[in-house]
Amino acid sequence: MRSRNAAVAGRPEASIAGRNNSAYLDLKQRIQNRLLAELDPSMDLSRKNEVRAHIEELFAAILAEENMVLARAERQRLFDQIVAEIQGFGPLEPLLADETVTEIMVNGPKNIFVERKGNITRANVAFEDDEHVMRVLDRIVAPLGRRIDESSPLVDARLPDGSRVNAVIRP
Length: 171
Prior knowledge:
The chain is of the alpha+beta class. It has 2 domains: about 20-85, no CATH class; about 90-170, Beta-Lactamase. Helices cover about 40% and strands about 15% of the residues. The strands form 2 sheets. Strands 1-2-3 form a 3-stranded antiparallel sheet. It has a two-stranded antiparallel sheet with strand order 4-5. A hairpin with a 5-residue loop joins strand 1 (about 100-105) and strand 2 (about 110-115). Helix 1 packs across helix 2 and helix 1 (about 20-40) crosses helix 3 (about 70-85). The longest helix is centred in the first third of the chain and has 18 residues, at about 20-40. The N and C termini lie far apart (about 50 Å).
């Protein structure tokens, strides 16, 4: 029987890092969609450790079902990215966890900059596209009772931890 993923057929571990970005994004999206479909919508997402453990079980089952065998580091990277999408703020999660980052500036899906010790540098993360940016932005501002869309293209708010969020989109 041939594996769905030709890159892993006949090998105990395979790499998707060398594959084109769209193949990786397709795999990530496919697994993420299955996870979202199989997760209990009544699950309390604030119980992050429990939710993460449950997602990990489902993730392993989905990979096994699809005959997907990945190198340990790639499997962990894929899992972490999917959890960040489901529980957090997607590609911004590693930046938010970095205590040296004092500001995050998103100027488009592939143009993300951070400030560390007064120096601004390009971040090593990216969103998939404009819609991905908007999904994460909505996830950030919705709990604050705010919204951002074409009719309300500017939002300025404070997060519960005191951080400031300022976002502007094209009207």
